[in-house]
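note to self — DONT lose this again. spent like an hour looking for the file last time. sequence + predicted structure for the chain T wanted, 105 res
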Amino acid sequence: MAESPYGTHGRIVAKPGHGDELAAILLEAAAGLEGNPDCLLYVVGRAADDPDSVWVTEAWTDHEAHSASLADPRARALIDRARPIIADFADRARWTPEGGKGLDD
């Protein structure tokens, strides 16, 4: 039986004054996923009322594909760069993508 699509949505809070830097690293991650067919959606957004909060919404073919992406050496390097400037992971949710604009139906 095939796994269900898998998604996450959450806010990553940078240490004060590091929101732009964190967003730039996450956008590098998004660019690195362009050729990954298991990544259906990876969107980075900024909180209008909090310059140190960055939102990331992801959709994957399944949970295993998401986990595998985090083990990729390029992803690990970006995680290592981001870790020192992250203050908190907040407002995190796992969700099941069901379709819509931006997702293959």
